Amino acid sequence: MNPILQTKIEGQINNNKIMIYMKGTPNAPQCGFSAATIQVFKSLGVPFETIDILQDPELRQGIKEFSNWPTIPQVYIGGEFIGGCDIVMEMHNRGELAPIVQEVVNS
Average of pLDDT values for 53-82? Predict the structure, then answer.
């Protein structure tokens, strides 16, 4: 991976408590998985940042290499890669996501 892109991604993840790489924006998601992920975080009532990977083809490929995860959306909480829509939904449904999010947001 391009070292400049890697540094850019690391900065985005480390400078935001919750970072979501998605297709589209929170108000206009461009895929169902991105929309579902955003709904989970909106329901938790916490601040989060998003980046529309459709606006940056290099970032779109780079984030997949960075996380070694092939799909979008990708969620990072407290600098840690959590996963995509399926993992976020499972954690939310089991009540595991909210405590992690609250701990990071309150830190």
Answer: 96
Q: Which residues contact 93 (CB under 8 A, 6 or more apart)?
A: none
The tally of domains found in the chain comes to 1
What angle is formed at CA 16 by the lines to CA 56 and CA 57, rounded to 5 degrees? 10
Give me the domain span that covers residue 51: 3-106
* Model-wide pTM > 0.85: yes
Q: What is the CATH number of the domain that holds 29?
A: 3.40.30.10
Instruction: Summarize pLDDT for 22-32 with one digit per residue, the tens.
Output: 999 999 999 99
Write out the two tokens for 96: 């595991």
Distance CA 47, CA 68 (A): 26
